[in-house]
Design goal:
heterodimer; A: alpha/beta; Rossmann fold; seven-stranded mixed sheet; 13 helices; B: alpha/beta; two-stranded antiparallel sheet
Chain lengths: 311, 288
């Protein structure tokens, strides 16, 4: 599969958006060469503000700009965009509903060698807990571009989580993204894998292997965590009778928790979860970490087998 | 779409529409203080001390200095007042009501279920409120964003941010202070309501901020020291601040917590506790 960087796509998409809309302003916290907002900074220096290592201040400035009619994109690493400024997100963006898009790169443990301090594994729980926020985790660079464009044209606070490494394309160029509407990547009747972000490509790989073993697996890309496409979940539970959720996030408060709430309330079926258990990951290469902490296609395959066995 | 700024084509004032004299400002400040006492006692909770210390500053801004239009709270060219010390909401509500943003009678609904007047400010509920505040240290950042938007849009409005001195203990205040100087935000005026007290005692005993003026200076701000209860000094400082075009200005306003009511002055009890009905009666007499 072709691998493309979601953050590079983000940076280039921002430039396109900046050309169309003069009210787009971009903020960063000393990470623009990594978050790729530097493309926008080069093109529109007057509309770019580097807030230095002041993430809390950056959120406040973003809110003030948005309150004055601007569409603001603010970027940093996912760990700092969530844990470092949570009260500011709550007060200035969630409570006000202001038009600020937090696009964070370096989500999850695929950050790799930088280690525990830089692995954002609780960001989605934090953002999903904030009323009014829309939370999106694109599966590839094509979806990332679409999600960023949609955010620019949809009023209100957004969190979009991107990755550090290049990731395989799971979509073709003609893909059309609909906010809050999950994508069925592959049909199936024996079980459903609901995945997000980098786990979507892994879910597809797992379903290939399972198909050869006679297990017909549906694969859903739940790119929007909030608002959640409950209809797709209920349909999957009803039609396939077993659900596996795969995410690059802690067990607590992420996609798995959110899907489980819907399944428990609407259509209880056996479930299994491929995610990070209650601990931090260490330094290592991205792929080594994903193997070590149980986030591979093989892990998804095992989870599907176990959940099918409990039907 | 909530909170989107719309531009109104109607004729807009180029100066303060009240333009009160100093004698009239003094009377207005007394009136606002009376509202603070009445509404917080009626609510049974709230923060009268820090509202009273800021009363003269807020009066000067709304009734002499700021360009604003109560008939059009979202007017794009209005000067902005951002109350970072959100617990002083009662003094802002009093000024907004007396300006005509909403009926004065509505002040009696403070903190009650269904009221537009929340315990701490909420920009989505109250006409004229620019920022939702209550968690300290966030207003200066917000104000920088508002001031940068003016620069981008070539608008000449001024942004005023009122902070408490206690709030200068929050790290974010200093992040904002650094960045305002870095971005050379010359259309931003910070005012520190320096009443030297915070919830549990004297600021110097809890977390000493002195020398406060030198700290702001060292962070690249033009600083002005004033008596925050002397209208001549307040007005002169605000005028000076508008002329400074090299960067941001801070006015360190030396004030007295609970100012205007003898038994509330520098009495830490009235930071987050309101006057009893009997105390309120005495307070209102003193403020006649």
């Amino acid at each position: 599969m072709v691998e493309v960087s979601t953050r590079e796509t983000y940076g280039k998409t921002l430039v396109e958006l900046g050309k169309e809309n003069r009210d787009i302003v971009v903020l960063d916290a000393d990470l623009s060469p990594s978050t790729m907002t530097h493309f926008f900074a080069q093109e529109f220096p007057e509309r770019f503000f580097d807030c230095g290592l002041e993430e809390q201040n950056m959120i406040g400035i973003a809110a003030g700009l948005a309150a004055s009619g601007k569409t603001v994109f603010a970027s940093t690493f996912a760990i700092f965009a969530s844990c470092r400024c949570f009260d500011q997100l709550r007060m200035c963006l969630s409570q006000t509903g202001l038009n600020v898009k937090i696009v964070a790169t370096h989500g999850g443990i695929s950050v790799g060698e930088d280690g525990t301090s830089h692995h954002a594994i609780e960001d989605l729980a934090l953002y999903c807990s904030l009323p009014g926020f829309t939370v999106v985790v694109p599966a590839d660079a094509i979806e990332a571009a679409e999600a960023v464009k949609t955010a620019a044209n949809t009023y209100g606070p957004f969190y979009i989580r991107l990755s550090r490494p290049k990731t395989p394309l799971v979509y073709s160029k003609d893909y059309h993204f609909t906010l809050g509407k999950a994508v069925t990547m592959r049909g199936g009747k024996d079980a459903t894998i609901i995945a997000m972000g980098i786990m979507v490509a892994r879910a597809l790989a797992a379903s290939d292997v399972l198909a050869k073993q006679g297990i017909d697996c549906r694969v859903i890309n739940m790119h929007t965590l909030k608002p959640l496409d409950e209809e797709a979940i209920i349909k999957a539970a009803s039609e396939t009778g077993a659900i596996v959720v795969a995410e690059e996030h802690l067990a607590q408060g992420g996609l798995g928790s959110r899907v489980a709430q819907v399944v428990a309330r609407e259509r209880p079926v056996p479930m299994s979860f491929v995610n990070l258990k209650d601990s931090y990951a260490l330094s290592g290469k991205a792929e080594e970490l994903l193997q070590r902490y149980g986030l591979t296609a093989k892990d998804i395959e095992k989870a599907v087998k176990s959940v099918v066995g409990r039907k | 779409m909530p909170n989107q700024i719309k531009e109104f084509p109607r004729a807009a004032p180029r100066a303060n529409i009240f333009n009160l004299s100093v004698a009239e400002l003094k009377e207005m400040a007394k009136k606002l203080r009376r509202h603070v006492i009445t509404m917080t006692t009626a609510a049974g909770s709230g923060h009268p001390g820090g509202s009273l210390s800021a009363a003269d500053i807020v009066t000067a801004l709304y009734f002499k200095v700021m360009r604003h239009n109560p008939q059009d709270p979202q007017w794009a060219d209005r000067d902005r007042f951002i109350l970072s010390k959100g617990h002083a909401a009662p003094i802002l509500y009093a000024a907004l009501a007396e300006s005509g943003y909403f009926p004065v009678e509505e002040l009696a609904t403070l903190r009650k279920l269904g009221s537009r007047l929340q315990g701490h400010t909420d920009r989505n509920l109250t006409p004229g409120v620019e920022m939702s505040a209550g968690s300290l240290g966030m207003g200066l950042s917000f104000g920088i964003g508002v001031a940068l938007a003016a620069r981008l849009d070539h608008r000449d409005y001024c942004t005023y941010v009122l902070l408490s001195d206690g709030e200068c203990e929050e790290g974010q205040t200093w992040e904002a202070t650094l960045s305002a100087a870095q971005f050379k935000v010359d259309n931003l005026v910070a005012i520190v309501d320096c009443n030297r007290m915070q919830l549990s005692g004297w600021t110097r005993d809890i977390m000493n901020l002195e020398p406060l003026k030198q700290k702001w200076q060292a962070f690249g701000w033009h600083t002005i020291d004033i008596d925050g209860h002397d209208f001549n000094q307040i007005l002169a400082a605000l005028q000076e601040a508008q002329k400074i075009k090299t960067g941001p200005t801070v006015i360190i306003a030396h004030t007295i917590k609970g100012k205007g009511v003898s038994f509330m002055e520098s009495n830490v009890k009235f930071h987050g506790k309101v006057a009893t009905p009997e105390e309120a009666e005495r307070a209102l007499k003193e403020l006649e």
